[in-house]
Amino acid sequence: MRYSIVPVTPFHQNCSIIWCEATHEAALVDPGGDSDKLRSEIDRLGVKINKILLTHGHFDHVGSAMELQQYYKIPIIGPNKADQSLLDDLSIQYRMLDLSIIDFFKNTTPNSVIPDVWLEDGDIVRVGHEVFDILHCPGHSPGHVVYWNKVRKFMVMGDVLFKKSVGRTDLPGGSMTMLINSIKTKLFPLGDDILFLPGHGSTSTLGYERKNNNYVASS
User: Fold this and answer.
1) For the domain bounded by 2-150, which CATH number is listed?
2) Is the pLDDT of residue 99 over 60?
3) pLDDT digits 0-9 by tens, 26-61
4) Rounded to an integer, what is the distance from CA 195 to the centroid of its chain?
């Protein structure tokens, strides 16, 4: 399995392209914006995108999903249905932004995103021969999911956990109590040697965060 990180939107959100080396089948994860940039990277990699995966329903992670779904004629998969209210009216979200960046999202983000498949805890998503287990990890948003490749010891994290930080919980549906519980009961028990790709910032491992992240570090 391989991946490429493509930062998009003024929030530098980590859209990622993950693919199976054996088949070159690929998934586009959290396409928040900058569709032309994403298409160029897909062309450069020479992979075949056959699905869009969403970790959660915030606009900076889903802004280009509908456009790219139509362009590639592929399904949108995820997140959990608990995020449907976020996806039903994205304009509510970007109206909460600082005025200096509202226009970017107003001009590039659709009013709503309609997934073809909602995901539940324990579901499986395949990208070529690669298998990802679905972990429902609410807290940053009610329907946030994490994509977990057991064989590769690799996660697409979204905005649950960052390097030395965690996802914000002051947005509608957020809960710090639920977020910390998701991290400690769903993620940390899986082991320390797991690399994760967060929704913003640099990659890290669960072991590093267990020891160094002040929000969740073990005492």
Assistant:
1) 3.60.15.10
2) no
3) 999 999 999 999 999 999 999 999 999 999 999 999
4) 15
